[in-house]
What does this fold into?
Amino acid sequence: MARTLINVPKTAKKGEIIAIKTLISHEMETGFRHDNMGKAIPRDIISLFVCTYNGQEIFRAELHPAIAANPFIAFSTVATASGTLEFKWTGDNGFSATEQATITVE
Amino acid sequence: MTTRRNVLIGAASLAAGAGLVSVSPARATPASMDAAIKKVVGSAPLRKGKVTLSLPPLVENGNTVSLEVSVESPMTPENHVKAIHIFNEKNPLPNVISARLGPRAGQGKLSTRMRLADSQRVIAVAELSDGSFWSDEVDVIVTIAACLEDPG
It folds into this structure.
């Protein structure tokens, strides 16, 4: 499983806008490079990232080869209720990774 | 052991490798970027404003370039940012990222890191809930390019 780094505040006030930062280790091989024998290296990227908050989708991003290796995505959401944020990355060659973070909203 | 022969063979294969690099793959051109933007925007007018794309104007290493897009919007159910797209002119492909968000985001903001294969123009396009499209663009100068150089 790919290593991930998620930054979500542990607690937040109801209605507060919170910043969410995500990072996942992945080569993001573009498919445009060649090895030293001149053979094309096939594309291997993460193509979709989805974040759900208590089961409801709040953010989705389609990634292209122009995204740097170890994709970093930061966005925001309104803290509505205590619960779980789930992060899912999917991509080429059946790549799939899921991570969760819990938040307490007062 | 490093013999004269090995060194020569190494140099020859390096030269061959370099030759292959110069037969570079097709690159996105301003035209293909415009086509990619057209695909998102459709027939709606693309206006300048509301969007701020922050990207360093001079980049030393094109392999990871931090960028941030922020869109002026109250982010209410009636008036919010539906999507943020980023396009470039000279990477092999014009698309960079397409993000969908909604009123629950609280603010129209997105940060990520991209690759830049050359000095070029980068454009951020925001789609608002009323169906309008707004954009901002930045010209970036890159000293070490990404994407096209070979590993090792």
Summary: Chain A is about 0% helix and 55% strand. Strands of chain A lie at 4-7, 11-12, 17-24, 46-53, 56-63, 72-78, 83-91, 96-105. Chain A has a mean pLDDT of 94. The CA atoms of residues 48 and 62 of chain A lie 5 Å apart.
